[in-house]
């Protein structure tokens, strides 16, 4: 399984960090996890044509996580040399189907596929969810402590390697459960300690999570610009869990 960081930032303009977006590749399947604005271009930089994606998975419906959904559908719908006929499945929390329907009502037939099925599968917001994805991946979810239908995601490959995405969240017992012993935890660390923004994690929160869940590796993402850019890694790595700050384009082989 390969995990590529497409965007390690947020909605805050940052020359080095795009909004949230990740690529999970396993068994020849390419699964996009979130995708804020500019994701199509960052996919191309990672060597993946958005028209070749096999599935989309969203942690939640905030703009910095799903703004490129309409552009991706547009790219798949406009006439081109290759016409997609195979299904594009989408997994996300409850409420996503009506969100997509509203997008399609606004943009019209430009993002309503006529040559391939677009299948939305909603996952529960009140307990665990599970789905079988392309490439033999199994997706397990738990509700996150955030808004807009937010989920934590865990992908398990056929060889049992695992990657967990926190999505946006406040400190969450569900995230500890899902991330326990995983090979790679891609975790939001939006804030610096002392900043008070509800629904997000700061280094002390992530250190507590690392201590309890003991992931094999921890990659910090969804970072607002910092006054003390290295403080978070130093704080969290003191737990003994190998920790680094994601950069756009980083790839991790599990
Ligand atoms: Zn959010
Ligand atoms: Zn966000």
- Widest sheet, order of strands: 6-5-4-3-2-1-14
Low-confidence stretches: none
Count of beta strands: 14
**What overall form do the CA principal axes indicate?**
globular
Major sheet summary line:
7 strands, mixed
Rounded to the nearest angstrom, the radius of gyration is: 17 Å
CATH fold-level name:
Metallo-beta-lactamase, Chain A
In whole angstroms, the N-to-C terminal distance is 5 Å
The helix/strand class is alpha/beta
CATH architecture: 4-Layer Sandwich
H/E order of the elements?
EEEHEHHEHEEEEEHEHEHEE
CATH superfamily: Ribonuclease Z/Hydroxyacylglutathione hydrolase-like
CATH class: Alpha Beta
Helical segment count: 7
Small molecules held by this entry: zinc ion
Number of domains: 1
Strand content: 25-35%
Give the quaternary arrangement of the chains: single chain
Mean pLDDT: 96
Give the secondary structure arrangement, pairings included.
Elements: E1 2-7, E2 21-26, E3 29-33, H1 39-45, E4 55-57, H2 63-66, H3 69-77, E5 88-93, H4 96-107, E6 118-123, E7 129-132, E8 138-143, E9 151-156, E10 162-165, H5 173-179, E11 184-188, H6 203-213, E12 217-221, H7 231-237, E13 243-245, E14 251-253
Parallel strand pairs: 3-4, 4-5, 5-6, 10-11, 11-12, 12-13
Antiparallel strand pairs: 1-2, 1-14, 2-3, 7-8, 8-9, 9-10
Helix pairs in contact: 5-6, 6-7
The structure holds zinc ion (ZN) (2 copies).
